[in-house]
Structures are given as structure tokens and as C-alpha cells.
Hints:
Blueprint: E1 14-18, H1 28-43, H2 51-64, H3 72-85, H4 93-102, H5 108-117, H6 122-139, H7 150-157, E2 161-166, H8 171-180, E3 189-191, H9 198-206, E4 214-218, H10 221-229, E5 233-236, H11 242-258, H12 264-276
Parallel strand pairs: 1-2, 1-4, 2-3, 4-5
Helix pairs in contact: 1-2, 1-6, 3-4, 4-6, 5-6, 7-11, 9-10
Protein name: Glucuronate isomerase
Organism: Staphylococcus muscae
InterPro entries: HAD-like_sf, HAD_2, HAD_sf, PGP-like_dom2
Amino acid sequence: MNTSLSHFTPQHQHxxxxxxxxxxxxxxxxxxxxxxxxxxxxxxxxLAPYREKILQRxxxxxxxEITRGINRFKGLSKMLTELHETGVTVDGYADIKxxxxxxxxxxxxxLTRAIFKNPDQKGLKYMLAWSNKxxxxxxxxxxxxxxxxxxxxxxxxxxxxxxxxxSSANLSAVDDEWSTHxxxxxxxxxxAQEAGTKEYCIDALKSLYPEDQVMMIGxxxxxLDAATHxxxxxxxxxxxxxxxxxxxxxxxxxxxxxLNNFDTTMQKQLINQFYTNFE
Length: 279
């Protein structure tokens, strides 16, 4: 299995890119409920009186609204901004919002560089501490595994298409999850946040395949945007209906893709289902 875009070698004429968290792996809900949200209270204990309100709102816009899959730093800024607008402002909020609104790259290393350049902006230190606490909490979570029907769908698709994991999570976590549940046997390449954004990874990969023979499978608008940006097909895994989505892919849409019958009409219908599912 390849983890380097520059060394990726196609084995088939078709490519299927698959997101990991919340799409292939049923890991997104537990991570937000037990890591991302609670870590806010860990770093800003003064928010404890608002704990239930914060956790509920965090889970809603990170899991069940069109903002699902939002970058963690953007999500934190959004949450703190909503609190600020209700009169609850945490220490360092202005620094956090400014960095999120202006940085070209969202990552712990980029945030670390910003702290080095601006040591007086303590909000950045709080944000890095939060991100590290999130990672620490995630490391201690149990492995939930893939959604039902993922194994069968990928086993089927692997017969005619290369499968590349394209995820914004860190590589070690993705590799561990997919290896633990014996799914890497179907994977040709695995490209996580270290390889670049989803848009960047798909752009690099699609050049190796014939036109109209690349697809992105995802559960969030960021996945759809990455596919649209690269003019490749998008197959949605619908939140709350993941097992059915994967079953339909195996039984119907995989063959349409294999036979080059996955057309614009079908694509429009699927994208409409994707948006409707968030309403």
C-alpha cells in the first residue's frame, strides 16, 4: 500500500477515493462526543456552567448540519464565536478568531509556527493545547470499526478499481483503524493530512487515470467540494443511513461506475439526496 503520491502506481483504469472518518469508519461521532467537545471544557474550565449547551451545539454543527466535517480549528472558532455573541467570551478568543480567519494552512505545525512568531498571543497557545488534548482523548478511545457493508463494498470495488483513502485525519490513526479491521487489503494508497488537502490529493491522483473514471466517496461537504473542484464524481454516504448507502453503492452504483454509466443525471440526483439529508 502506497502512502506517497509521487510513487503511486495505478493498477486499474478506475480510481475510487474514500474518506475515512464518518464515511468508511464509524469514528466521527465518538470523536466529537468524547474528544473534540469535552476538550473545550478541559482547556477553558470556566465554561463548565455551559458544558451541556456547548457539547450539544458542537455535536449538531459538526455531525448533523451541512458544516459536518468542518476543520477542527474552524469549528473551535465557530463555537467560541457563537458563545461570544451570547455574551460568553473566553480568554484568547480574539487571537483564535484572527488566526483562523487569516491562516492559509490549518494544522498543529502551522499553529506552532504562529505561536513562535507571536508569543504574546496566548489564544494561540490555548488553541494548540485544545488540539493536543483532542488528539490525546482520541488516542484513548475504543476502536469502533467500519460501518456495515463497507467491507463487502470495497471487496467488490477492488476487483475493478484502485481504492485510495483520502482523509484529513493523521496517517497513523487512519492506518491503524483500517489495518485493525482488515480493510487495507483492498487499499492501493492511503493519503492523510500529511499528504496535503483532499483537493490536492485528488488532483495529483486523477492525472493518472482516464477522464470520468475517478470518484470520491464521502460523507461531508468538504468531500463534495474536493470532488467538484477536481471535476470528478461524488458518491455520498448519507449521515444516519451509512449502511444503506454502502449497500446501494455495492449493488447499484459501483457497476454504473465500472461500466462508465455513472452520468451527470445520476450525479445530480445523488448530490440532491446529500443536501436533502441534512435538512
